[in-house]
Write a structure and sequence with these properties.
4 copies of one chain form a homotetramer. Chain A is mainly α. Chain A has 2 domains: 47 residues, Homeodomain-like (Arc Repressor Mutant, subunit A); 140 residues, Tetracycline Repressor, domain 2 (Orthogonal Bundle). In chain A, 74% of the residues lie in helices and 0% in strands. Chain A has 9 helices and no strands. In chain A, helix 5 packs antiparallel against helix 9 and helix 6 packs across helix 8. The radius of gyration of chain A is 18 Å and the shape is elongated. Chains A and B meet through helix 7, helix 8 and helix 9 of A and helix 7, helix 8 and helix 9 of B. Chain A binds a DNA duplex (21 and 21 nucleotides) through helix 2 and helix 3.
Chain lengths: 194, 194, 194, 194
DNA sequence: CATGAATGAGATTTCATTCAT
DNA sequence: GATGAATGAAATCTCATTCAT
């Protein structure tokens, strides 16, 4: 069950490809094994069960996601700038790994409640990053101090997520990253005229 | 296959209860039949197949949803007011039918891609309502005319959806409807200080 | 259960049409009822069960078959002539009622062993007709007296049956009746040169 | 899906036994699996689906049939002798494998049209053997050159088939092979006195 | 460490038949 | 006599997981 052996990554990568190409319900363990170039039984030397593969896909990739986010955010001075690079990076990473986009936005959502709960656990880390930006913005007098942090986080995450999902459903046929500034503006200022 | 016979509604209602209580993947046709108080075979006098039951759950309830929305929205003068009653009603309807909330926010999303496509078809009607409010707001000089309608709609729907889902995941333990004004304010003004 | 009421015949006729058009396994009772223009339940006022419909189809039509045979055979003097008109009539009747041909040669043979046993019971009458011709031929010194009647009957029936079945399988695209003289000659003289 | 692994034959053999003992419609996959001493799922490692098992039963056994025929026929000089050994062997093989006789003469004929079409495809090979004998006989001036090959083949096959079926229906209670010379004589010379 | 053949539980759907009206 | 809505039993096939090699 060593997570640093090469076959571990191999299987995770294979799972992303297989799920993206076949859909969640057609991603059988034997297909993942074949794509990874290992025997079916070998999967179980590295993962507890099928659910463990899926949650691991999310954890590994989302871990990279959050690390990346923290890095680029730290490099910015204002909350507005931090929010912008976060959105840009979110869009950018998924634009570049289109299979991952399909898997996280469409396929993995078909998993059962229990798996989704675990995925939410992983997501929390990402939500903390959003919260940090929001609190930082309030402290810097950039953001409204009366604003409910939890609701604002739901707005930010919900908007980003819905935007990416719509892009995936439309077969990724437009430039997602290009939408970042407009989304950023909307999240900062809302719909109303100023 | 008549949709106005009492058993049709009876089965739809049973499906909502069974899915909410057992989860999507444990909602066997025989469980739904038992809950509805009919024989398994009777289900197939009213629905083509299992998928048809699930689609119908969504269509029937969402149909009511959209009708209700259009009604309350028409009664308001400004875009801001229209948006507020839309959010209030969305939250309110799901607050009152907690099983439906579980089914739409968590369970039905586990369905396969094809079923989700059909659900999206039903959802489009709701998204049109949002679009109408946004365009109305622009025409009335309440909303920013440079705003991308599609992105704004994604923000509004994404925020509402994420808020409801979070509430469901947290076992519906707080008052969802009470959040409507704060969500409304966020959507109108964003996070930034004015 | 009166067999002389008009609906009895109506249902038999409907059964032939439905089986010919849909095949044995797709000939549901409800389809037959619809074709006959009666309610499903009405079927059971005239027939014990589905099997009874099928066996009745065979009995009614084959009854006519045998009557016809006896009639035309009685009008001929020699065994050879009797055999010829029997073959001609067999081919002719099925040529004219192509649905019946499909039903007797292909579809009804898919029925279960029990039903086929009953059909064989009905067929026996027809086989007796053949036996009568054979014995008459032997008495008249037209046919070989050492010949095993049972085997000869199997040859005659088997040949006729196989010929009709082949014609049905080939979509009845050639003139079956035209084959009667050649089949007759073969049955009388065999393959060997004289 | 390897056809040379021992379990492949094992399942075919089990299918013959189960179908013969229970009838076509009562030959569930689970019964066949049990008879073969494997798990239900194992069946599907060797066969596409249930129909594939049935086709394979026919193909495997009929393949042996045709091979055997060609062999014994090649060893004879005259068309008459060839025909005789063909009939003898046909009767003999089915006499020795009585379950197979039940399956081919009664049970497999209950299959749906599609399966029967496939079975006919396999049968064609056998019919070619008959045709070859007939043409050989004509070339050797043993058989009537004016004879329609197709009709003669239908007579031969129809007679043999009907003879075997009658024997099976009568519970195989007489010696089928003993009938071969008489059947042979009938096919060569017909019913008529010479 | 790695393999892959074997396992076996579990669910949708059809359709002959009934019976209250 | 006639209706037709309701019944409910029954069977194929999939696929995650194991374990002998």
């Amino acid at each position: 069950m060593k997570r640093n052996k090469p076959k571990y990554k191999q299987i995770i990568d294979a799972a992303v490809v297989v799920i993206a190409e076949n859909g969640y319900h057609q991603a059988q363990v034997s297909k993942i094994a074949k794509q990874a170039g290992v025997a079916d039984g070998t999967i179980y030397l590295y993962f507890e069960n099928k659910e463990d593969i899926l949650i691991s896909v999310f954890r590994e990739r989302m871990g990279y996601f959050v690390e990346k986010m923290k890095e680029v955010i730290a490099g910015k001075e204002t909350a507005a700038e931090k929010l912008l690079v976060m959105i840009e990076n979110h869009f950018n990473i998924l634009s570049r790994d289109r299979n991952l986009a399909i898997v996280t936005q469409l396929e993995l959502r078909q998993s059962n409640k229990e798996l989704r709960m675990q995925i939410n656990e992983v997501l929390k880390e990402y939500l903390h990053v959003v919260d940090d930006i929001l609190r930082f913005g309030q402290a810097q007098d950039e953001f409204d101090k009366n604003m409910d942090i939890r609701l604002a986080r739901q707005m930010i995450f919900g908007t980003i997520d819905e935007t990416v999902t719509t892009w995936v459903i439309n077969d990724q046929k437009y430039d997602l990253t290009a939408l970042a500034p407009a989304v950023h503006k909307l999240l900062l200022n809302g719909c109303a005229l100023r």
